[in-house]
């Protein structure tokens, strides 16, 4: 669920992966931590079910006991981050996810029987799930705890050792993660490596057995290049411009509430937040008015309202205000939802809040329609026919999520079949991420691979194919010297 710059992705400076890493004390510490884990893996390559359950239990307790400290650290990093949103998206989500893993781990670990052709019987075949070894996790700033500990829990459930590189954009949260995890796990099992761009680059170049990166598409390309040097398999959780299509028959008030809820949670800093709306021409103004009403109800004030989160830092604040300036200059109409008319900047207070904003009359020349927004700005595009809306989506890079509002199940099925996205929801936004048993991941520019649930366990496991030959078998019937016997047998097996 994450994005736009992990520890390193900003438009204001060179990517952390563009240059060779320097030999620093931090990088030496990084290599030492990796070598320690690799040696521990060789001593104990397959942790038992009991050991894995114990690790998951420790994580569950860590999250529950420290939820107040986690909420405080994240809010300090953002200057204002809703504590309730942290409890929902960071604490509750992790508790649910880890409990689901614990309930299903024994079943996941059990080898799975596979079909064996009659010609190979009485032999049997199974898939064994084997720990990969040492897994790297590069986590983002927007949900800095859940998107670090979630992959950590999944990798531990699969029996791995894990190194985490959290974002430098949320330093207090990163330091807290390092402290808390070091108190619970030995360094040869879990390690948190903090630091800036050079550390991030060096981390990406370690010969992990698997590397999971959550962040922007641009930096994801560099991460993949770095991993390729070691043939390290990667899971990339990226982003893109996730569209929301509203059918003309869908109730406007219902659509407005669900769209606003998903869009302005965490001030839009969610990788699967609706990036832009596709609405029927005749319904646009009614939907805009309904969204205004809903948002004003959600956030009757903005400046001192702890329910409305701030933009994470000055770099992203300037990026987002730049989108607005560019869009208006190119002919867009800006509609801010600021019920009390509060002045949100220019008073010397570093809150970095941007009012929930809709943009009408947008076009592809505007940067807001080219980049993933990742903030509280919602462009609205109109369409005349549903086919036109689907074509609009398909003309653009495949998104991480797609949302469709329509009570007609056949039309909804048709839209889902004709579009390609990492995930989707019908008559809802973002909630598919919360379903523990659904895989989460992107497709094409929005990512590769998936985690969550059993698919996450598979991602961090080697699926070893094993054939068990029976004591008494007919394998020798195919052995040389070949002759009439083998020819008759092959004719029988192959057929005409």
Query: What share of the residues does DSSP label as strand, in percent?
Result: 15-25%
Which regions contain 5 or more consecutive residues with pLDDT less than 50?
1-22
The biggest sheet, with number of strands, parallel, antiparallel or mixed sense and barrel status, is: 7 strands, mixed
Name the average pLDDT.
Answer: 92
Total domains, how many? 2
Within the CATH hierarchy, at the fold level, what is the topology of the largest domain? Answer: Aldehyde Dehydrogenase, Chain A, domain 1
Rg measurement, Å = 25 Å
Discrete helix count: 15
**Please, what is the CATH homologous superfamily of the largest domain?**
Aldehyde Dehydrogenase, Chain A, domain 1
Number of strands: 16
Spell out the blueprint of helices and strands.
Layout: H1 25-43, H2 49-65, H3 67-78, H4 83-109, E1 112-114, E2 124-131, E3 134-138, H5 146-157, E4 161-165, H6 171-184, E5 190-192, H7 197-204, E6 210-214, H8 217-228, E7 234-237, E8 243-246, H9 252-264, E9 276-280, H10 284-298, H11 314-329, E10 333-336, E11 357-360, E12 377-383, H12 386-394, E13 401-405, H13 409-418, E14 423-426, E15 447-448, H14 453-459, E16 461-468, H15 484-494
Parallel strand pairs: 3-4, 3-6, 4-5, 6-7, 8-9, 8-13, 9-12, 11-12, 13-14
Antiparallel strand pairs: 1-2, 2-16, 7-15, 10-11
Helix pairs in contact: 2-4, 2-5, 3-4, 3-6, 4-5, 5-14, 9-10
How would you summarize this macromolecular structure in one to three sentences?
The chain has 496 residues and is α/β, with parallel strands linked by helices. The chain has 15 helices and 16 strands. Helices cover 41% and strands 15% of the residues.
């Amino acid at each position: 669920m994450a994005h736009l710059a992990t520890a390193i992705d900003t438009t204001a400076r060179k990517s952390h992966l563009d240059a060779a890493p320097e030999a620093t004390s931090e990088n030496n510490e990084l290599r030492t931590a990796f070598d320690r884990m690799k040696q521990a893996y060789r001593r104990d390559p397959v942790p038992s079910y009991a050991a894995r359950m114990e690790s998951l239990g420790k994580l569950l307790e860590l999250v529950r006991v420290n939820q107040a400290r986690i909420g405080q650290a994240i809010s300090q990093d953002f200057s204002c981050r809703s504590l309730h949103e942290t409890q929902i998206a960071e604490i509750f989500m992790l508790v649910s996810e880890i409990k689901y893993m614990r309930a299903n781990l024994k079943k996941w670990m059990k080898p799975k029987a596979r079909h064996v052709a009659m010609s190979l019987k009485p032999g049997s075949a199974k898939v064994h799930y084997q720990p990969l070894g040492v897994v790297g996790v590069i986590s983002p700033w927007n949900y800095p705890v859940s998107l670090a500990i979630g992959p950590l829990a999944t990798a531990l459930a699969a029996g791995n050792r894990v190194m985490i590189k959290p974002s430098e954009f949320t330093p207090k949260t990163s330091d807290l993660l390092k402290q808390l995890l070091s108190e619970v796990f030995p360094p040869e099992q879990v390690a948190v490596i903090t630091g800036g761009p050079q550390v991030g680059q060096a981390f990406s170049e370690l010969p992990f057995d698997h590397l999971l990166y959550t962040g922007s598409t641009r930096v994801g390309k560099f991460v993949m290049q770095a991993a390729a040097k070691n043939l390290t398999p990667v899971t990339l959780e990226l982003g893109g411009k996730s569209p929301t299509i509203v059918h003309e028959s869908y109730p406007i008030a219902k659509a407005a509430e669900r769209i606003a809820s998903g869009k302005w949670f965490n001030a839009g800093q969610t990788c699967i937040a609706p990036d832009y709306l596709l609405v029927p021409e005749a319904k646009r103004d009614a939907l805009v008015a309904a969204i205004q009403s809903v948002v004003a109800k959600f956030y009757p004030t903005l400046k001192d309202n702890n329910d409305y989160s701030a933009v994470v830092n000055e770099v992203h604040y300037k990026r987002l205000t730049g989108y607005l300036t560019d869009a208006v200059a190119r002919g867009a109409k800006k509609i801010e939802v600021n019920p009390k008319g509060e002045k949100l900047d220019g008073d010397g207070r570093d809150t970095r809040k941007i009012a929930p904003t809709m943009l009408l009359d947008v076009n592809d020349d505007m940067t807001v329609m080219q980049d993933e927004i990742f903030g509280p700005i919602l462009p609205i595009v109109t369409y005349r026919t549903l086919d036109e809306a689907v074509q609009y989506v398909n003309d653009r890079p495949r998104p991480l999520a797609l949302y469709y509002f329509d009570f007609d199940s056949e039309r909804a099925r048709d839209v889902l079949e004709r579009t390609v996205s990492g995930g989707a929801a019908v008559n809802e936004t973002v909630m598919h991420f919360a379903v523990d048993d659904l895989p989460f991941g992107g497709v094409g520019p929005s990512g590769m691979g998936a985690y969550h649930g059993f698919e996450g366990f598979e991602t961090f496991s080697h699926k070893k194919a094993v054939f068990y030959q029976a004591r008494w078998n007919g394998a020798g019937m195919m052995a040389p010297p070949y002759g009439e016997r083998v020819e008759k047998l092959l004719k029988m097996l192959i057929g005409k």
